[in-house]
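Friendly challenge for the regulars: who can give me the structure tokens for this chain first? No prize, just bragging rights.
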Amino acid sequence: MVKSKKMSVKYAIWSVVLTLVSLAYIYPIVLVLINSFKKKAYISRNPFSLAMDKMFVGIENYVRGIEKTGFFQAFGWSLFVTVFTVVVILLCTSMAAWYIGRVKNKFTSTFYYICLFSMVVPFQMVMFPLSKIANMLHLDNPWGLIFIYLGFGAGLAVFMFSGFVKSIPLEIEEAAMIDGCNPLQTYFKVVLPIMKPTCITVAILEAMWLWNDYLLPYLVLDMKKFKTLPIAIQYLKGGYGSVDMGAMMGVLVLSIIPIIIFYIACQKHIIEGVVAGAVKG
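First reply, four minutes later:
Bragging rights claimed.
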């Protein structure tokens, strides 16, 4: 009984602590939302107050932000790059992880460790050679950016998928092959459906990174033709450090809504996928 009470107190304390941490993370988003309905002058003067009375401007900041940034075009390019990159990463890395998990030789072992090594190499070390090579190979467009992102996103994805593949009983695949499935059919009809929790987890992690990434598109893309949302928002900064804070707040709110909806819709699968990907062989 005493032990039960101690555990209850412990859980209550942790609940309070984690709730406070959650509020600390959510507060900046709420602050951006509040300031998106204020006049520009009051955002800097009274950033923490609610948009009341003369401060309130309705959706004016949103309209101005959309017009100044070319929001819908930038949104389209961000959506294109994010969706297709996530699909390519999931398909290629899950296949690679399955091959690594089932074929044991020096090549697969070396390939696996190369993928792990790519996770610890700072992007700053490769960004200038990368931008030069991308320009030389004519990858300075959204289609080329997808393949560049594949290289940077493969490390984490292969690591998580490889851990999950180790937990898949080999007998299931053998039964599929006895029934007449070739390797591709076995992968798409048997292995990939089993990988669903890890696929969703990897998709969420990669999508959040891709949607919010600023530096790589800025280095690679031709700014005269293509702008993703982070780049378009950055262009609200004018000369001599002037910033249209009202328009920026409005566009920031619009840009985070899709990724929040995606995260909420898929969050129940995150823990399941992470735990599954952590299985050791």
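Residues 277-281 have pLDDT under 50 and may be disordered. DSSP finds 14 helices and no strands in the chain. Your move, everyone else.
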